[in-house]
Amino acid sequence: MNRIQPHxxxxxxxxxxxxxxxxxxxxxxxxxxxxxxxxxxxxxxxITDLSKEARRVRLRIVLEGxxxxxxxxxxxxxxxxxxxxxxGFHNGLFYLTFDSVGLxxxxxxxxxxxxxxxxxxxxxxxxxxxxxxxxGRAE
Length: 139
Hints:
9% of the residues lie in helices and 47% in strands. By secondary structure, the chain is mainly beta.
């Protein structure tokens, strides 16, 4: 898996179109005293060639050493569609959310923005990888 550093957030978020993608699964794993949160997403690559359709990819994003997470569903909120994607690094933890926190373009999400969101997690390490589709399955 690839490790993301705070200075790589913008590049990572530009590489994929998260908005409109789907959260396929969320797993919280407890191993001893350590907790990890894994997100499995279906998103599109960013368009690099206007003559081609953006390719759909599956991402696996893992927050190791998770110390905070919240997954709350409200009746009027979309259930699995990603409405926004924000990353942050505060007090030594990586924060990640996939719902709209009400910020404009270019605004940086602060700690209270993540904690007020419906879907967020925070951990010491942020890892990701593209998951190849299984043979015989079309995306």
